[in-house]
Every structure is written in structure tokens, then in C-alpha cells.
Fold:
Amino acid sequence: MKDAVLADNERRINSIDEAITVDAKKYPALKFYSKGDALVSAASYIMSFRDENRGFTGKTRYYDREVTLHKAGAEGVWQTTTVSSTEAAKRCM
Structure:
């Protein structure tokens, strides 16, 4: 089950990248994998690229991701509802 959570988390991040590079209205994956505060946060991040006329290039790498399951037996799509991040963290540099 943890692999399914990590796979859907990767798809969420890819949906943000997609929304930056193409018309997000035509590709609704962002709303499929993000809800609540996570969707608001992603929209703000995406708009910062648009407002500053910036692009996106490169690779997305995933490090030390952890999954904690609070309910056993949950199925379906895993959606991100909250996000915590540290800009320019030394651990990632």
C-alpha cells in the first residue's frame, strides 16, 4: 500500500509540472491528486511561474520519502491535502 501512496504522490508532483508547462484547464490531473490546502498551495506555486514568465526544465528527483498510514485497508487514489516544504533547504542542495 505504501508503494501506491508514493506512486500517487509522484503523479501529483508531475501534475504540478504539467500545469506549469501547459494549460492546466486542459489537463485536470492537478485537481485529481490535490485537494484542500495542497491544491491552493500548488495553484499559487504554478501562478508564480506564470506571473514571472518563467519556464520549467530539468528532472524531478525524490529523496527519503516516508509514508505513515493512519487507516488500514484504504483503497483508491491517494490525494495530497496538505504540504510542508522548506525553500533552499541545505539537505536538498
In short: The mean pLDDT is 83.
